[in-house]
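Example 182, ligand coenzyme A.
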Amino acid sequence: MLIRASSHSIFVTNGRPVRVRRACWEDVGKVRDFVAGMSMRSQVMRFFTALPNPSERTVRAMVTVDERRDALVALHGREVVGHAMSFYGPSGDVELAVAVTDAWQGLGLGTHLVRCLVRKAAARGATTVVMDAHGENRQVIAMIRKLWPEARMRVDSGSLVITAQVRDCRFPGDEEAEVAGS
Ligand SMILES: CC(C)(COP(=O)(O)OP(=O)(O)OC[C@H]1O[C@@H](n2cnc3c(N)ncnc32)[C@H](O)[C@@H]1OP(=O)(O)O)[C@@H](O)C(=O)NCCC(=O)NCCS
């Protein structure tokens, strides 16, 4: 499995460049603007509530990287257009959360950010990925079905709990590898 450097650039499917790197404290203002700039629907899908004025606590949690948390920002120029974070549990589980600003959705960025965190989780020995999603979140369900066709989804207190194995995550080239090997 390829482990990408923590900072790298990609082109999303409309050809625009995005730089992906680990979040840091200096990103607090940019991440606040990113959250506040999301549509109310996207905020609710990500945070289960509207967040027109994200609190200092919420934003700081999104840029905190320590032994239990990882966080990535995707930047177009100086603007944060995507964010993903992971939280490592005690028994090989890692919880992921991801968001892409509305104008950049559907361009492959969310999938890329999740794959980056899954690579890091694999390198750290995590085995199980968990995501809590809003029950009406069609985008995230579609994204998960492509990344993990075998993912388990169950409804718990109105939200959708997605569970998948780190090792089963689909990466570009997996299909070709399967065909070549068959
Ligand atoms: C869910 C989310 C992170 C996905 O990121 P994204 O960059 O938009 O998704 P991608 O472009 O990587 O698309 C992955 C798949 O999702 C599906 N998808 C993406 N946008 C979609 C849309 N507007 N409607 C329906 N399906 C969509 C497609 O199946 C897509 O595969 P395709 O590229 O082959 O068509 C993003 O839509 C988002 O931030 N939504 C609001 C916050 C949120 O829901 N976060 C998840 C919390 S768990």
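Summary: Residues 57 and 87 are 16 Å apart (CA to CA).
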